[in-house]
From TrEMBL:
The keyword Transmembrane helix applies. It catalyses: 2 GTP = 3',3'-c-di-GMP + 2 diphosphate. Its cofactor is Mg(2+). CDD domains: GGDEF. Its EC number is 2.7.7.65. It is an enzyme of class 2 (transferase). One of its GO terms (cellular component) is plasma membrane. One of its GO terms (biological process) is cell adhesion involved in single-species biofilm formation. This is diguanylate cyclase. Coiled coil: none annotated. Keywords: Membrane, Transmembrane, Transmembrane helix.
Amino acid sequence: MLSTRRYLIQLLLLYSLILICLFLGYRLLLDYPQELSAAEAHQKRELESLSRGLQMGLRNLQAVTTDWAHWDDTLAFVKDPDNHQDYVEGNILSSTFETFELLGIVYFDRNFDLVMAQGYDLQVGEYVSIEQVVDFRLSTLFKEQIKPGEPWQSSGWLASRQGAAAFAIQYISDSAQEHPPAGYLLFIQSISQNQIANLEATTRLKLNFTPTSLADPVTHGVVSLMTPELVEGYKLERRRLLDDFTGTPIMLLSITHEPLTDMQPIGWSEVLILSSMILAPIVLALAVDRRLLKPLRHNTRLIETMVERQTLEPLSQRLHTRELEQIRQAFNRSVDLVERQQAVLRGQSMTDALTGLANRRAFDQQGAEMWNLAVRQQESFTLALMDLDHFKAFNDNLGHLAGDEALRKIGRSLTKSCRRANELVARIGGEEFVLIMMGLEEQTARQRMEALRTDISELGIAHPQSSVSMSLTCSLGTIHVPRPGINYRAVRIEDLLSMADKELYRAKDGGRNQVSFHVYQLPQAGPDAKSAKENLPED
Ligand SMILES: Nc1nc2c(ncn2[C@@H]2O[C@H](COP(=O)(O)OP(=O)(O)OP(=O)(O)O)[C@@H](O)[C@H]2O)c(=O)[nH]1
């Protein structure tokens, strides 16, 4: 059968398995996908706002370009540049480039032929030629975009010599815009660190712009920023391409999202939750094992040992729950009951039912103990065997019941005569009693024996058939050992009893109603066990 401990372990394993399945199922199928799609939506919004931010920059540039392109002065300059050099001197200033962070300003006529172009190095703060800013062959590209003379405006990005740059182009007209396009004004604006910092602040992204080209392998598989789809799903770092107005990639943006949460399906927090959910019942089970099962196992072992040794003892270790403690107490009460019953049985097995005196078994046990004690303490030891005289005739004459009553009376008399702690009276046969007295001098022992004898006859139990007396009498065979020492160790109580029996025989033989008293003494000089045996009286 399964032990409770094993059962607990199996339950725990099952619980852990179910828990892990439920937790992983919930996390992977329900919770994590939700978390992921929320994070993806958030990242998509970030990309959109980045795209919008860049578009906004273009719109601002477009606004400035439009403003300039629709000045009457600009119109006049494009129409007749040679006579309007003051326009250049008054407007194409280093402060203009720096205020709008411009890398170049270019004026085309309505056929897209160059009227005037000025480049500017923002880092050094100096005018440079437009060729130092951009590859000016781009004007042909613009030409391909429009029909010359159309009221055309556009903005976007282009590759400058200093990396990607924004541009805005606007047809030139009068302030009322009634005049047909007389030319085109192109502003080229750098994407400055300031602009990047502003974009980072508004989008909460970390941005890194690096120039690139179609030939650059890093551009492969990277989508354009202007289609801000979250093609790769949730990712902390991604790349996007900025295309120029012809759709050619010119800049690679490395984008780092600010992490919302730890977006792992199973992260530390999940491991922590799961392990604490598994650990808690393990700790609980350990506590149950320690507080309940361990004492239970201990007590079971104790009971098994008791069964092996055929003993019974109360269980002393308290148990920690009421029900278990009740079982322990019930067991202890049973032990107590059995012990009491055993004591009664022991008493019964040691007692003569008729007289209430010690019986043969009790004499064998206690007599031996008393003899051993006498030997150890060198205390004189007197053993007497008493037998009623002509008791058969008594029974035959007066009946068995009268015989029993006589035996009871004699028992009471003997008990009264031998009530000291170191004295014993036992009924060891039908009408045979044995008496032990310790610590008596020979003389006193003799007197006590005589007193016993007379006590019985003085009970006055009529015995008409007796040849000895009118009342019931007894004969005593007594062995007195004055001071048994260590040399008496080989002598057993049975030996003394058989010596007393011989003395009893003598008393009977001598006429009954008398005491035959024998002093049994070994030679002083330390006889060994063999010599003690040898000194036992002959039959
Ligand atoms: N009433 C009664 N008689 C018992 C009991 N036990 C033994 N007796 C009787 O005691 C008698 C003993 O008789 P014997 O052993 O022949 O000896 P006796 O008649 O006493 O003769 P002596 O011992 O030689 O004096 C027997 O008749 C037994 O039946 C008992 O418990 N009750």
